[in-house]
Amino acid sequence: MTDRTILKVTDLSVRFPIRGPFGRTLGQIKALDSVSFDLNEGEILGLVGESGCGKSTLGKTLMGIQGPNEGSILFEGKEIAGRTPREARALRRRLQYAYQDPGASLDPRWKIGKSLEEPLIIHTKLPHGERMTKVREILTSVGLPAGHADLFPHEISGGQQRRVGLARILMLNPEVIILDEPTAGLDVSVQATVLRLFRDLRDTFDLTYIFISHDLSVVRLMCHRVAVMYLGRIVEIGPVEELMDNPKHPYTQSLLAAIPKVNGPRVTENFWLKGEPADASNLPPGCRFQGRCPHAQPLCREKDPDDRLIGASSVACHFAGELTPPVPAQKERLTL
Ligand SMILES: Nc1ncnc2c1ncn2[C@@H]1O[C@H](COP(=O)(O)OP(=O)(O)O)[C@@H](O)[C@H]1O
Ligand SMILES: [Mg+2]
Predict the structure, then answer these.
(1) What pLDDT digit, counting tens, does each position of 289-324 carry?
(2) Which residues surround ligand 2, an ion (CB under 5 A)?
(3) Are 297 and 319 within 8 A, CB to CB?
């Protein structure tokens, strides 16, 4: 990892209209609410939080698939928002989004080689022979035989399809890859090999990742830093060890308390965090977590907390640093 900032996100907000009958706008969902963070070259930044907190929206907005309502995205110092389509296309090659199920992005009627060749046809002027050389090279670097180019997607396993999905992204030499739940739905044994592959590819191709996952044990294993999102806001961001061993936001504390023990009985329910997140189209006054927070005080119902630097983490909580988690944070480790 270097000290060079490759991506700088400032006060990014995305709102979706809620449409009623006859297309009338009934309200707005704040999918991203003033999100800011930096990404360093070579870094793996984890992005965690419950379903619906805005992880995919953040990924898609960085990619330019989703336009922001406000905010700035600097990629290598240049603003992404407001680009011409041609510039956006050139940029998009260097910033890639890996969908939750990359197998689904493969055309079942096409041989794998053709699916891999397609991005080169669209984005480059390479002749067919050179395109196929590159296809074979990239297949090999994701750990598949070059001969897989002649197979159809249904002829390979789910784990191999993930590798092909990754190969498709790598065809265009990206610098930043947004991995959205990259191991969801894979067997644990296959997960480990895919995670190892991500790490190897990062080293081989000098990649930087945003690693979206709800699996905190995987995040601990893979990431340098972690951002915890709650209802469209980053509520805590910090180095992985500090965030996991010494979580400061009560929401982070509760997420960690809910991790199933690797060698113990499985805790399937989070026994500390009660209720559902607030309605993203109708946030409560004050802190968005106050309705579920066991420590909430009158101030929390009045004022939305600013981000505060505590140790090496930035935390959006009035009382962060003064709170003791009611259950010890999970300290068990997986190894690859
Ligand atoms: N295209 C869309 N139109 C309207 N609402 C959306 C759209 N995409 C996402 N949302 C809403 O935005 C919020 C964040 O969604 P998402 O980014 O998919 O969350 P996550 O990936 O963390 O599960 C949710 O409330 C979701 O329902
Ligand atoms: Mg998602």
Answers:
(1) 999 998 899 999 999 999 999 999 999 999 998 877
(2) 56
(3) yes
Strand-strand pairing, 95-98 and 176-180: parallel
Category of 169 on φ-ψ map: left (φ > 0), alpha (ψ -120 to 50) or beta: alpha
Beta bridge partners of 15: 30
Dist. CA 52 → ligand 1 center (Å): 6
CA 316 centroid distance within chain = 20
CA distance readout (Å), 19 to 197, 281, 294: 42, 12, 34
pTM of the model: 0.89
Looking from the CA of 158 toward its CB, the CA atoms found within 13 Å total: 12
To which H or E segment does residue 336 belong?
none
Best residue among 14, 25, 29 to mutate for probing ligand 1's pocket (most ligand atoms within 8 Å of CB) is: 29
What pLDDT digit, counting tens, does each position of 198-218 carry? 999 999 999 999 999 988 889
Q: How far is CA 8 from CA 176, 218, 287, in A?
A: 12, 25, 25
Q: What's phi and psi for 152, nearest 5 deg?
A: -95, 155
Task: Count Cβ atoms below 10 Å from residue 177 Cβ, excluding itself.
Answer: 24
Q: For residue 185, give the DSSP letter.
A: T
Distances (CA, A) of 22 to 16, 26, 29: 17, 11, 19
Strand-pairing partners, residue 40, are 5
Residue 66 CA: which ligand 1 atom is closest?
Answer: 1
Distance 51 CA to ligand 2 centre (A): 7
Alpha helices, DSSP H, located in 144-187: 158-170
DSSP readout, 32-100?
A: EEEEEEEEETT-EEEEE-STTSSHHHHHHHHHTSS--SEEEEEETTEE-TT--HHHHHHHHTTEEEE-S
132/120 Cα distance (integer angstroms): 10
Neighbours of 314 (CB within 10 A): 21
Query: Token pair for residue 239?
Result: 């180095």
